[in-house]
From TrEMBL:
The keyword Repeat applies. Pfam families: PPR (PF01535), PPR_1 (PF12854), PPR_2 (PF13041), S1 (PF00575). The lineage of its organism: Eukaryota, Viridiplantae, Streptophyta, Embryophyta, Tracheophyta. Belongs to the PPR family. P subfamily. This is S1 motif domain-containing protein. Keywords: Repeat. GO terms for molecular function: nucleic acid binding.
Length: 845
């Protein structure tokens, strides 16, 4: 049987209210989510809609009204700090009291969706006069429940350990923390006081579900309800909450625990983790306060504490404070390890203090040679190499690779792999290949992963010849590139015009075991299409057939696409005809779409339409929107506007839904054909009602209107879109600005920029480059700069509308987006700034 005493909560008003106590209250206001009730001498509590009755309540006003007196039970405090009240609980208690007045009736009590009390009729209860308990059913088991007539509270014959086990099962086995919380809240209504095990189970389950914010709030709620775990449990829970990477919330929780338990001291590990998280978020000052708090509570900082704090200050550029902390370590008897020295060295390298860095790096090598902690030494070496590469000290990295000053404190394989990784991260792939050369000279084989990273980076960075050389050298020790690296290397070699080397790599891969040869050929053929090598393309296709490697549909589609892009439509049609005649695999919709594009690009409109309207249906292929878009684009490009519109009508008739690409193609085609009225009508009657339009469609309309000399209509169109709650992107505004600048309309251009800002968009680099067209004349530059200086000097005082945030934000945007071609960037910036400033002043006036 649980304890009968009720817990108390001290609320902010200063008076106490019992959790589980029943109070008279008056409804003061009603909201959609519940009602606010004044009780217990002026305290305000929230009566949630779910606590109004046992049945579902649709509207709060159906149950209570303003000014109504109620008997409500205090449930404690919710996660938002409101006092939780329940009308439903008092109704349940009233029924319970009535059941004890009439002993012939057993009352049911619902605990949770999975726990319910059985209801007996009058005859059954009369037949069992000596029995005081109802049957309690919890899924597969039946437990007994009884009501205490002495305290009018709900108690259960199940032990605390039994309920603790049930809650723990919900949290761990079932992974249903919400069920556990619902059960726990229901038990609290009936006098049950959660223990440390309940608290631990719930907090761990919430953290496992990544509900860290709720875990923090729940723990604060438990603490406010005087459910305070022991010191060991507190440290375990703090360690788990630190996984959330929210140091401020966790530190606030620690302070609350210390206020309630003055003797509680968080563990040194928890303090170190908290300091690390504050330093990671670039708040070393806060971390230092935690450091002092840790010392005040009796902890002696260890090397981890100092190293973490030094690293935080170094990241923020506070090298002086970091150096003082480093010197302080020897004063308090804490011996810095190699990682501490490397962290301080990283900060010194950022300040480019080469003399101090040289002293520290010599000290680091000596420390590493005398320290036998391999993990710390590896971390220190990795940190210093990464810092050297990040700050551009590559010669020092190569010197370390040659001299090996760290000795045997770090394995050579790890050291060289770290150098390669750090150099690749900063894009120094040739430097990484130099490390490989040093390794090979010392008889060390690089790891295949590091070697692949170098070759891949060189291929992407334009060093495909060096990558091919490394590929040939790597074959000697069993290196095989990944498929992705193979594709990048082959494509880069083909683009350099060195097809024989690319073919050599293909032949090497084909000889490997358990490889998809067709896929390897497809990659190679795709690379050949990039360089317009039709002869090699045909030879490769013949080579596939000779090696009994059957081309698939992807192979043939790639070949056809390559021929079409090279303008060799006849060769493409030969391959296509072979596919339709059964020589190869049958064509699919991609094949037909590719051939259609090739025919239209070659001006063979009739053949393309026959292929679309006759041959595709004959093979059971239904043209998709992608196919129709390709045909429409080709027809508009050939100035066959009427034929294109007929194809669009056929597309709609066959039930193929147009997308925004379709509409963009049609709008572009109509404007190019100078059919402005048709384009407007198509927008009004088709595109807008379909709700299928995006920024590409808007840009097409704006460009068409501007090119036809209708800048005003283009502006009106964009502003109407905004009025209809459509948000065009900055590209559409830049189109208007460019149109105004081309016409020399400076005022209109800056007005468009103002509208852009009103709608939440900031000008980008393209905007400023467009505006530069308006500032070719520099005759009045000195006068403008003088007037601007006077306005800036007195603007903030004389006009509250011209705030400093406006000026600073505008200048920052200009500086960051400044075109590199501008001769005098500051003059250009001030010119633009002056024009916008004048417009802003006129707007204010």
């Amino acid at each position: 049987m649980y304890e009968s005493s009720l817990s108390r909560i001290d609320f902010s008003t200063g008076s106490e209210a019992e959790v589980g106590g029943v109070y008279k209250g008056i409804v003061t206001s009603i909201e959609d989510y519940g009602a606010y009730v004044e009780f217990n001498g002026g305290q305000q509590g929230l009566l949630h809609i779910s606590e109004l009755a046992h049945d579902r309540v649709s509207r709060v006003s159906d149950v209570v009204s303003v000014g109504q007196q109620l008997s409500v039970m205090c449930l404690g405090m919710d996660v938002c700090g409101n006092i939780k009240l329940s009308l439903r609980a008092t109704l349940a208690q009233t029924e319970t009291k009535e059941s004890f007045v009439d002993d012939s009736l057993t009352t049911s009590a619902k605990i949770s969706p999975h726990i319910r009390a059985s209801v007996h009729d009058r005859s059954t209860s009369q037949a069992k006069q000596g029995r005081n308990e109802d049957q309690l059913v919890n899924k597969d088991e039946v437990d007994e429940v009884k009501f205490s007539t002495a305290s009018n509270s709900f108690f259960e014959t199940r032990s605390v350990a039994s309920w603790t086990k049930t809650i723990h099962k919900f949290c761990t086995v079932d992974r249903n923390v919400d069920e556990a919380l619902q059960l726990l809240d229901s038990l609290r209504l009936r006098g049950y006081r959660p223990n440390s095990l309940n608290l631990s189970s719930v907090i761990h389950a919430l953290c496992r579900a990544c509900r860290y914010a709720e875990a923090h709030q729940r723990l604060l709620f438990f603490i406010a309800s005087q459910c305070i775990p022991d010191e060991r449990t507190c440290n375990v829970l703090i360690a788990r909450l630190l996984d959330s990477e929210t140091p401020h919330a966790t530190y606030h929780l620690i302070c609350r625990l210390i206020n309630l338990i003055p003797k509680f001291v968080p563990s040194l590990t928890n303090y170190n983790r908290l300091i690390h998280q504050f330093c990671k978020s670039l708040e070393p000052n806060v971390a230092h306060r935690v450091f002092f708090d840790m010392m005040d509570r009796g902890h002696c900082p260890n090397v981890v504490s100092y190293t973490t704090l030094i690293n935080g200050y170094c990241k923020c550029g506070e090298f002086g404070i970091a150096r003082k902390l480093f010197n302080e370590m020897s004063e308090v008897g804490v011996v810095p390890n190699s990682l501490t020295i490397s962290v301080l060295l990283s900060g010194v390298l950022r300040s480019h203090d080469t003399q101090c860095a040289k002293e520290l790096i010599d000290q680091l090598w000596e420390k590493m040679r005398n320290d036998y902690d391999s993990l710390v030494n590896c971390a220190a070496f990795a940190n210093v190499v990464e810092s050297l590469c990040g700050e551009g000290f590559f010669s020092e990295v190569f010197q370390i690779a040659e001299d090996v000053p760290q000795g045997t404190s770090v394995s050579e394989a790890f050291a060289y792999a770290q150098m390669i990784d750090s150099l690749c991260r900063v894009g120094r792939y040739h430097g990484a290949s130099r490390i490989v050369h040093i390794m090979r000279r010392r008889g060390i084989t690089p790891s295949l992963l590091s070697y692949n990273s170098i070759i891949h980076g060189l291929s992407v960075d334009g060093g495909c010849m060096r990558a091919f050389q490394l590929f040939q050298e790597g074959i000697q020790f069993g290196y095989v590139p990944s498929e992705y690296t193979y594709r990048i290397l082959v494509e880069s070699l083909c683009q350099e015009g060195d097809v024989p080397k690319a073919k050599e790599i293909l032949q090497f891969f084909i000889k490997q075991k358990a490889v998809d040869r067709t896929r390897l050929y497809n990659i190679y053929i795709r690379a050949l299409c990039l360089v317009n090598n039709a002869t090699e393309l045909l030879n490769t296709l013949v080579s596939m057939l000779q090696m009994q490697c059957k081309p698939d549909v992807i192979t043939l589609n790639t070949v056809i696409n390559g021929f079409c892009k090279m303008g060799r439509i006849d060769d493409a049609m030969k391959v296509f005809n072979d596919m339709t005649m059964g020589e190869f695999c049958p064509p699919d919709s991609v094949t037909f779409t590719t051939v259609l594009c090739g025919l239209l690009n070659a001006g063979k409109t009739e053949e393309a339409l026959v292929l679309l309207q006759l041959k595709m249906p004959e093979r059971g292929l239904i043209p998709s929107v992608v196919t129709y878009n390709a045909v429409l684009r080709g027809l508009f490009k050939l100035k066959k506007t009427d034929e294109a519109m007929e194809i669009y009508k056929t597309m709609v008739t066959q039930g193929v839904s147009a997308d925004s690409t379709t509409y963009t193609i049609i709008i572009d085609g109509l404007f190019d054909a100078d059919r402005v009225a048709d384009a407007k009508r198509f927008w009004d009657e088709t595109i807008w009602p379909s709700n299928v339009h995006d920024n590409f469609v808007y840009a097409s309309i704006l460009k068409g209107l501007i090119h036809s000399g209708r800048l005003g209509e283009a502006c009106d169109f964009l502003y109407e879109l905004v009025d209809c709650r459509v948000s065009p992107n900055i590209v559409n505004y830049n189109i208007l600005v460019d149109g105004a600048c081309n016409l020399g309309l400076k005022k209109q251009a800056y007005q468009i920029v103002g509208e852009m800002r009103k709608n939440g968009l900031c000008p980008d680099a393209v905007t400023w480059r467009i505006l530069e067209k308006l500032h070719g004349n520099q005759e009045e530059e000195s006068n403008r700069l003088l007037r601007l200086a006077l306005v800036l000097e007195d603007g903030g005082r004389s006009s509250p509308h011209l705030s400093s945030s406006f000026f600073s934000g505008f200048m920052i945007n200009l500086i960051l987006a400044m075109p590199p071609s501008t001769v005098n960037k500051m003059q250009f910036m001030l010119r633009c700034f002056w024009d916008l400033l004048c417009i802003s002043i006129l707007a204010v006036l």
